[in-house]
Structures
1.
Amino acid sequence: MDGSAWDIKSMTLEELKDMLTEEGEKPFRASQIYDWMHKKLAEDYGQMTNLSAALREKLAEKHPLTALKPVDMQQSGIDGTRKFLFALPDGNMVESVWMKYKHGNSVCISSQVGCRMGCRFCASTLDGWERNLLPSEMLDQIYAITRITGERVSNVVVMGTGEPLDNYDNLLRFIRLLTDENGLHISQRNVTVSTCGLVPQMKRLADEHLAITLALSLHASSDEKRRELMPVALKWRLDELMEACAYYFEQTGRRMTFEYALVGGVNDTLEDAQALSALARPLSAHINLIPVNPIKERDYRQSERAQIEAFKGRLERNGINVTVRREMGRDIDGACGQLRRRHLEK
């Protein structure tokens, strides 16, 4: 796709050079503008002091600069996790989460406004899908949080609202811009993309040979249970999904993560753990167990602590690499989509 289809902040440096040259500007201006947008994180052209006033005015008129505006912020009293609600230029809103770990700061971003996947235990999907986010709108969640906190982000997780692979082209461009040495230059190895299992897109992503981590929202170890929790399972069976995972592993050499939300009395038995081991073992997949976030619109509940430990123990005895996700910010609207829903309801 040529650069003319994107807003200025979604363009690569080369596309920006071509565009400015076409508009009669000197190509070196592209590096200056790119640097202001992606390294200095400027929110408007007025901040770009090494450009002439005339050029800044022309750019502002022809190429509005995407910059997200914070609408709300909640901070956890337990672990300092901050949840942000940002307004997009068209008035839609998205959520992002900033988490502080010993190894650095991690930001979880959204890839769509709303979601059309319909997973039963997820608040993001309750109001349906509005639209895809542009690469610039994904980037600026990270840029805005960096501006607000004054701290560098070292890890990015595309696991907020939306199905990233349902916004494939924008996602790919976002990853390329985020990891570009002329921008924030975050290592691809520090980027995780989550999917509920869109098989063709998973294979397409494998062929890009990126060094990112792909996390599969699996949440069940049988087709029957998965279909109950995730409508996407009606389209692709587990064997098709595992084949796509094997292809991804083969093409990239990157071990996958299986995300598994433990729902009390639904998918948390030792039989489930046994079947999950059989899926993970051939792929050397890492399993991330997630105590499900209860949402008031559904009657799913979290598994008991003892059940979570027993489930984890069974996986470990089967030689599976497993962690239980730390519940960051559980005293604020933790589950994705809840802060946005509250604002929409208001």
2.
Amino acid sequence: MNKHTGTACGDGLTERICGGEYFDPAATLGSGQMFRYRAKEGGFLVLSGSRACRVFCRGTNVLFRCREEDAEYFYKYFDLSRDYAPIVLRAATCGIPFVAEAAQAGRGIRILNQDPEETIFSFLLSQNNNIPRIRMLISRICGALGEECSFEGERYFAFPSARKLAERGEDFYASLGCGYRAKYIAGTARILAEDSAAGYAALSTEKLREKLLALPGVGPKVADCIALFAYHRAEAFPVDTWIERIYREELGGTLVGREKIAAYFAALFGDAGGYIQQYIFRYERERRSKWRE
């Protein structure tokens, strides 16, 4: 467990402090799990639904500041009750040098516990897209349909509920620049307005995946991302171009098809798979980026 203490800051705000060895805010937020954050005063402003917090480092500790009523939400959001040391150790001793290196380099990455609706719509927008554009589209949707809020003097817009999103049709989302994804946003909103995504948490991972795959525009990789980042199903192992490259170049894999590769990794790492996926995903991206410099 990541021990933490809380301190009242006045104006209805509280500040929580936790150890930083297994919590790197920049690595966690920049790992492709979520898209609603921005740099602020040496740290980051993190938005989730209508909630906001500021997370930053101080010495060897990490602090997050939020409204008092949101403190437990963000404690859970950052998965701070979980001890990540055994997870890193498992990756470091798996016998695969690349995975061991990635786990050591990325040991501060945590798997977030995000709002299911927001995660579903965010990853519908992520398909064949880059992170700056995903963030722009989410910002446009929030600005058009979300409630205006403020935190520490900074204005932002809440992520709209599925019911609110369902009030608009495909043409509206196309006008915001969503392209072919507009029909997926509109169609999924209509379904989730009646069938709560929060209720999916009670399903087995297999049934959860079936539910997600039945949503318009959700394929196997997006379903695995949602299962991992919204429902914390750590046995899920999303496979994209980066992971497929790692599989072939670092592990010498010969399987064809990303679903087969995902099943291979899931069998190899079991309930630690999602964590290890994040370690190797970020490690490969960082490494490739340095090579291009």
